[in-house]
Design goal:
The complex is a heterodimer of chains A (116) and B (113). Chain A has 116 residues and is mainly β. In chain A, 0% of the residues lie in helices and 54% in strands. In chain A, the strands form 2 sheets. In chain A, strands 2, 4, 5, 6, 9, 10 and 11 form a 7-stranded mixed β-sheet that branches. In chain A, strands 1-3-8-7 form a 4-stranded antiparallel β-sheet, with no helix packed on it. Chain A is globular, with a radius of gyration of 14 Å. The N and C termini of chain B lie far apart (41 Å). Chain B contains no helices and 11 strands. Classes of the chains: A mainly beta (116), B mainly beta (113). The A-B interface holds A 4, 31, 33, 40-45, 48, 50, 55-56, 90, 92, 94, 100-102, 104-110 and B 32, 34, 36, 38, 41-46, 49, 51-52, 88, 90, 94, 96, 99-103, 105-106.
């Protein structure tokens, strides 16, 4: 009954490879996010989808491509992996509740990507 | 655009002592403010949030925070630290019409026995 789940939890790969990280939420939320946490634990938004529509697209290399097949899923595909892509990637989801001016983002457990 | 500054990247407290984590924000419109906690090798968990109304907000695990507009601050406190409070704490800000959550650099809390 995990709210926001990510697979895999750990991903070790060689430079130049292409890899994907999957995220699923069972909270019925309509907005999903990808964050990157670097080695200094700094968190930065990468992308956000609302009802399968891209609404946030920060300055991220084109090698990163999010895909949202439906409201409950948001995947992240990374082409031509580089050493600097090593980080922990977090998925999150949220929704706007009637009568509530803001929403809380619920985070997944993270995917630790190591590029060798 | 909004931003958050967390003063002190590392705070060490004795078990039973007061925990005080400082957060100052910058926002051109009324902010919504959040504190998240990250335990080792885990995702982020919401501790508490301020949207509107009462400026003193109570959260989980005995934490609370006070929104002070005049000081642009949202400091997090807990009267008595427990060993289980050792974690990374993040302050974050967003506005009502912006999905983007901007995080501070985080504060690592260690608790001494």
């Amino acid at each position: 009954d995990t709210a926001v789940s990510q697979t895999p939890k750990y991903l070790v790969t060689q430079m130049g490879n292409d890899k994907s990280i999957k995220c699923e939420q069972n909270l019925g939320h309509d907005t999903m996010y990808w964050y990157k946490q670097d080695s200094k634990k700094f968190l930065k938004i990468m992308f956000s989808y609302n009802n399968k529509e891209l609404i946030i697209n920060e300055t991220v290399p084109n090698r990163f491509s999010p895909k949202s097949p439906d409201k409950a899923h948001l995947n992240l595909h990374i082409n031509s992996l580089e050493l600097g892509d090593s980080a922990v990637y977090f998925c999150a989801s949220s929704t706007r509740l009637a009568g509530e001016l803001t929403d809380t983002q619920y985070f997944g457990p993270g995917t630790r990507l190591t590029v060798l | 655009a909004q931003s958050v500054t967390q003063l002190g990247s590392h705070v060490s407290v004795s078990e039973g002592a007061l925990v005080l984590l400082r957060c100052n924000y910058s926002s051109s419109v009324p902010p919504y403010l959040f504190w998240y906690v990250q335990y080792p090798n885990q995702g982020l968990q919401l501790l508490l949030k301020y949207t509107t109304g009462a400026t003193l907000v109570k959260g989980i695990n005995g934490f609370e925070a006070e929104f002070k507009k005049s000081e642009t601050s949202f400091h997090l406190t807990k009267p008595s630290a427990h060993m289980s409070d050792a974690a990374e704490y993040f302050c974050a800000v967003r506005t009502s019409n912006d999905y983007k959550l901007s995080f501070g650099a985080g504060t690592t809390v260690t608790v001494r026995a």
